[in-house]
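User: Second chain of the day. Same drill as before.
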Amino acid sequence: MAKKSSAKQGGKQKVVLAYSGGLDTSVIIPWLIENYDVEVIAYAADIGQGKIETDPLKKKALATGASKCYVLDLKKEFLEEYAWPVLKAGARYEGQYLLGTSMARPLIAKHQVLIAEKEGAYAVSHGATGKGNDQVRFELTYMAMNPRLKIIAPWKDPKWKIRSREDAIEYAEARNIPLTVSKKKIYSEDGNLWHLSHEGGVLEHPEKEHEYDMLRWTTVPEKAPNKPGYVKIGFEKGIPVSVDGKKLGAVELLEKLNALGSTHGCGLVDIVENRLVGMKSRGVYETPGGALLYRAHEFLEQLTLDRDTLLYKQSIGQKYAQMVYDGFWFTPLRQALDAFVDATQVVVTGTVTLKLYKGNMILAGMESPFSLYDPGLGGFSDVDTYNQQDATGFIKCLGLPMKMRALLLGKKSPVKI
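Assistant: Same format as last time:
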């Protein structure tokens, strides 16, 4: 149940800011203080972006004006309660994007609301721009969890005079706020254990080839090893549980697959996608371990799911991806789709071996106790369970509508044959 937000607590009202230490949220701390006369509590979620990013956060937030800074380790929850359901659903936005940022935002916003309730804050704030998807993901989660909280979104606030990343850099420099970006290298990045995304800079010009100088994880395929690598991934009810026969926890498992996938140039995607707000944007995504898991999971479903279930589940995956991308995580429909997906995953148990070579993820063997593949039935030899003569009547019934249409219309048919 949503708790009623508090009024002033011993002086200034409190605002909890979703803080990454990046350009936008770094300038928002002093901006909130200057424009709203509030106490700013910074909150950062550690979802695997690395110690080099999370360790300095508290010091930086306090130096920038925050009264307090929470840094929560949410890596395990991120994978088990967000990434694994998305993986099981086979959700790919527009066929390629594996939703690394999309599924992280509701988790981050959820704990932001919990901190706001704990601190008696009257508002929550985020650094997402009014042109992006994250503003929707954050704010829909706030509304679902505590509709009484005020939402302060500086990029959409009339008091906000910053209109570009260049403006934000100047604002930060005037206040001696340390930055990791510059006007020359201005990529916007978002990283977690699942992926690393890059936007901005030369990527805003899709007609131009670039050198992938922004990559931090993945080897480009032409520089990957000339010798292929192999990995065996084990699943239980659709959930990845082992690598090369060794049982691993979620975090350790994905870290191992990230290392393997990135070495062999796997999971690098360069796409132009349709944002929820109506525009197209270009992004580069590094998802090495996630790409291996998706490919292995898809192969295992081919082996264990019947035709109708597999086809229907693939259509569900498209809807699931759109909902996650659009920020509709905490909704009855998403939960209902999870129930359907989980029912299909009961038999998705087994192992898949992948051959990794210069960005390719090639099937090198799979097995499951629930395999529906019968070597005899699927081959060319006659077997007792299938009489080839039965196909004659089957095809006659299947083609009857087409046959009757051709007989009745004849040359009058508008369909060219």
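The domain at 14-190 is CATH 3.40.50.620 (Rossmann fold).

User: Great, on to the next one.
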